[in-house]
Design a protein that fits this description.
By secondary structure, this protein is an all-alpha fold. It is globular.
Length: 216
């Protein structure tokens, strides 16, 4: 499936399953699930498309930046949680762990390690080290990526490193009609879920806007 479809389905699935009920958790859910929904395709670097690899890195970078910007605007104190020496060590340790897993995955064939159960587990562990509450967002988004990739022709090595266990249902093309429908459905669910969360936290968001406007 295309990157935008993975993003839409990954975020929609995370929102539906984890049900973030606060502005902070909504911000973290959208940011981390966006990363999780595309990070599996970092192995495209070892395949035919360097452009796809760069797209994944760009999406991950933008998501991290937007989390920091959203944290400042919403006052969710996400960054503040890492100010102590102990938390900084944990942050760096988790980041290095994920980086090592991604470097290994980037040198594996497409739809092998980064599309496998071990790949999901290791990335989720790294995410839990950095910020435990975000681990479910990463796990759900990565699983959604793998599940919808199973629908098209090229099979995935779900139980990497086992070579004979490959899963693929050959039901649709990766950029055909089903891909487009999934993108629209995922986008609709995301908008509806975000709207509902904002609605139940409307007083908090109104206060944020008032505080933001008062600074100008």
């Amino acid at each position: 499936m295309t990157a935008k479809t993975h993003l839409a389905i990954g975020c929609a699935t995370s929102l539906l399953i984890t049900q973030p009920a606060t502005p902070r958790n909504l911000l973290l859910c959208l940011g981390i699930s966006s990363v999780g929904s595309v990070i599996s395709d970092i192995d495209i670097a070892s395949s035919e498309s360097k452009k796809g690899f760069k797209k994944v890195l760009a999406i991950v970078t933008v998501c991290i930046i937007l989390i920091f910007i959203g944290d400042i605007f919403l006052g969710t104190d996400i960054v503040a949680r890492f100010k102590s020496d102990k938390n900084i060590v944990r942050l760096l340790g988790g980041f290095m762990f994920i980086l090592a897993v991604c470097i290994f995955g980037a040198h594996c064939p497409h739809r092998s390690f980064m599309h496998s159960v071990p790949g999901v587990i290791l990335i989720t562990i790294g995410t839990a080290i950095i910020f435990p509450v975000t681990a479910p967002y990463m796990a759900v988004a990565m699983c959604s990526h793998i599940l919808i990739d199973m629908l098209n022709k090229k099979k995935i090595r779900l139980l990497y490193p086992l070579k004979k266990v490959r899963v693929g249902f050959n039901l649709c093309y990766s950029d055909g009609l089903v891909n487009k429908l999934m993108f629209y459905i995922g986008t609709f669910i995301c908008v509806a879920q975000i709207g509902f969360i904002i609605y139940i936290n409307s007083k908090h968001f109104i206060d944020i806007v008032k505080n933001f406007m008062s600074n100008f």
